[in-house]
Amino acid sequence: MGGKSSAPDRTLTSRRGFLTGVAAGTTVAAGVLAGRPAAAAESDPAITELPDWSRYLGDGVAVRPYGQPSQFEAHVVRRDVAWLTASPESSVSFTPLHELDGILTPNGLCFERHHAGIAEVDPNQHRLMINGLVDRPLVFTMDDIKRFPRENRVYFLECAANSGMEWRGAQLNGCQYTHGMVHSVMYTGVPLKRILEEAGLKTNAAWVMPEGADSSAMNRSIPLQKALDDCLVAFKMNGEALRPEQGYPLRLVVPGWEGNMWVKWLRRIEVGDEPWHTREETSKYTDLLENGQSRRFTWVMDAKSVITSPSPQAPLNHKKGMTVISGLAWSGRGTVSRVDVSLDGGRNWHSARLDGPVLPRAVSRFYYEFDWDGSDLLLQSRAMDDTGYVQPTKDELRAVRGVNSIYHNNGIQTWHVRSNGEVENVEVS
Ligand code: MTE
Ligand code: CO
Question: Which atom of ligand 1 is nearest to the CA of 111?
Fold first, then answer.
């Protein structure tokens, strides 16, 4: 069944009548802000001609057993920057933040950061081992893990190197590249506390070291207090199984802390009485200061925000008039309490509107709507969290940290919007 032969044969007159009725109704409601006068419909083929999708049957059910976005959204993809890394196996792809809305990142668009490529793990062969300073070293299958009580939590994951290329000045044109090493997902998993309790912690236990099953065997030291507080051993993201890129079948969730600690393809957790000082917390993921000393164990991701639209990849096509500014804010210390937006490079600030769930250690969505007069804008956003922390300017950050490190750049981003609607990554001082 189906196909073009069964298309209804509508006459031009009935088609016209039907369409003008709809057009008139919708234009009255929307006309005040952004619509066009109904009269314009007479010469608009999008109104006067019936498109194919209104005339023929479409695909039936289950033609697309796993749904994909519309063909017209094919440009909404993760992207990488070829010159950034020596090989694609140890590299990063970026979330297309400028195309997204709300607070959840679709699974297929979550940025990826792999040190040894994507491990394709067979869940039936996968095991999680707990060893070290425990009463009973244990080995869990995936089925074993799914017999513990579960929790559902939305958290952001931000790589410590997000915005790292911007430390010395504005460089990459697009929030996908400047801020796209962040994603926000609802995880389903088991509190790590439950699993450690099952093994029984020795009295001198003070640290844990998660380890990945990929060929990089990624490992980090995490204080036991954090492990017992809110870490999850997660097997689902946004309701479905973790994607291979995100650590299928099991990953560690370390809310608010740098992405590197969220070990993917999690196969082992060792319990110890002191940190291990692994490669990823000595030569990497320490922040080199001007005086040659390094900041060590900089785990928490401080409050940060970015305007995702307009931005260099999402220019203002409508020129002047009613304009929606949209962006993301997050804090690894707690909940975003307020976001301000500036149109003039930080001289004047306006309170933005937070919309949608505002959750601790998840991203929050903000909006600021205004009537653009068409003149140049220097757009900025500034996040605050419930600890009282205020996102610093890039200059304030550099005064304290220098420019040697690529990690933990949470400075305020500036977008220059020109009168023709084009947007560029710039800095103001
Ligand atoms: N875990 C393993 N096993 N191997 C890795 O390469 N990369 C880490 C972390 N966990 C990594 C890993 C880094 S640096 C980051 S930022 C996050 O995973 C990225 O998570 P994502 O790929 O889900 O965005
Ligand atoms: Co990282």
Answer: 24
